[in-house]
Ribosomal RNA small subunit methyltransferase E
Amino acid sequence: MRFVYHPLAKEPTLKIEGESYIHLYRSRRIKSTSRLELRNLKDGFLYTYEHAEIAKKHALLRLVGAQVLEVIPSKKTHLILSVIEIKSIEKILPFLNQLGVSRLSLFYADFSQHNEKIDSAKLERFQKILIHSCEQCGRSALMELEAFSNTKEVLKAYPNASVLDFNGETLPASANFEKGIIIGPEGGFSEQERGYFKEREIYRIPLDMVLKSESACVFVASIAQV
């Protein structure tokens, strides 16, 4: 763990309780003489705290230092992924976060699994996964998450996004996806959706194998940082 997340990190005093307390003081057995480094994942600062008290169910911390220490990817990558199984999204989130994806937009394509619902509770769970990933890899800013109801909505929101499909040009090794790249579901895009893409750049992955949506996400995120 590179740091501990706390939404109020930067305040003169902090209270650690709940899951964070259990992890730090029961699992990791942090001692009162130890100093902790915390982030709020908003301002790029790394805050150093010392212990004022460790009680049975909470700990009190006192701020003793702060430094600007941003750990962010050199390139911004925006992935626009059609909704797949929730468990598959949860599985790839840490990888995308570690690979420097700046934003993940989820949308319902025609062939998406519409029984998989992306609501506020799901987005909150996704964010918790990303927070744990940041604590492990050291990233100092959260990947942004958002959801759209259908393909038309996401195309309107991102008019310059490119598309990953089977019949496009070979994906260049030095591609820039700051404006977004749209990745379809397991069944691909419908003919109606392909009609929407006529004025957009269309790429394909330079492999003879057909990748699952989550594998395509990780592949694109990887080459985007090259």
Residues 77-225 form a domain with the Alpha/beta knot fold (CATH 3.40.1280.10). The longest strand covers residues 58-68. The mean pLDDT is 94. The longest helix spans residues 120-137.
